[in-house]
Amino acid sequence: MYIRGDHAELVVGGRLDVRSAADARTVLHSAVDDGAGDLVLDLSELDSWDATGLGVIMGAHRRAGRCGRRLVLRDVPPQMQRLLVATRLHRILAIEGGIGVESLPRV
């Protein structure tokens, strides 16, 4: 897993899972604490995430809200969009462009 960017926009790539969760949490929390306005997470290079990785995203979302910021997900890969829909988190998280639920392929 890697994260590059600044306090306004971060690109997350690789696997966001139990092994990378602690490092990702540290980077995301620092970005939330050090910036202002929306924090955009570009997920176009993310290969996969597990429940722990999704928990890191939700934790960053909550922390951003407490800091008066908004976490915005950009370019969410289709398989991760399906997970957000299945868990109904697409209703809570800000997703740039939204998710076209009807256009997602069935699994």
UniProtKB/TrEMBL annotation:
CDD domains: STAS_anti-anti-sigma_factors (cd07043). Pfam families: STAS_2. Gene3D superfamilies: STAS domain (3.30.750.24). Belongs to the anti-sigma-factor antagonist family. The lineage of its organism: Bacteria, Bacillati, Actinomycetota, Actinomycetes, Kitasatosporales. Residues 1-107 form the STAS domain. One of its GO terms (molecular function) is anti-sigma factor antagonist activity. This is Anti-sigma factor antagonist. NCBIfam families: ant_ant_sig.
